[in-house]
Amino acid sequence: MGISFLPTPKHRVFHYEPRYWNEKEEKMKERYAKYGKEYDPKAPWEGKASDEAEPKDTEVKNHLRDGYVPGILIRDAYRNGIDSNRRKTTNTKVRTIIIIVSLLLAFIAVYYFTMGINVLLQQ
């Protein structure tokens, strides 16, 4: 055992109570308690008709095809971000080339303009 002059503090315990409240589940628990049964949310509901008990394969496939696909928004956003960065780099490259060519043409025009003025002034 280690020697300490002061007592070591006890572990702090936080009594976490989640704020989520499912009103439907609470009402279902009250109904089950009223009739003396124990509520199990994972158990299948007993009142389903036999044809509604399990979804058909086509329904499941349609739901998967048309419904929510996990991560699709993140992947699309990532792809769009990459594409926009590529477009930005190509746009900046094209813009710099256009600027350089236009400056070069401007310097050539100024050079020939000054040469023409020198010729006119010497006559």
List the helices and strands and how they pair.
Elements: H1 23-34, H2 57-66, H3 72-122
Walk me through what this model shows.
With 123 residues, the chain is an all-alpha fold. The protein has a domain at 23-48 and 71-122. 59% of the residues lie in helices and 0% in strands. The chain contains three helices and no strands. The longest helix is centred in the C-terminal third of the chain and has 51 residues, at 72-122.
The class by helix and strand makeup works out as mainly alpha
Order of helices and strands: HHH
Count of discrete alpha- or pi-helical segments spanning 4 or more residues: 3
Number of strands: 0
**Outline:** elongated
Q: What are the segments in which pLDDT stays under 50 over at least 5 consecutive residues?
A: none
Tell me the quaternary state. single chain
| Proportion of strand residues | under 5%
* Biggest beta-sheet profile: none
- Please give the alpha-carbon distance between the first and last residues: 109 Å
Task: Describe, in short, the structure shown.
Helices cover 59% and strands 0% of the residues. By secondary structure, the protein is an all-alpha fold.
Question: What are its keywords?
Answer:
3 helices, 59% helix, 123 residues, mainly alpha
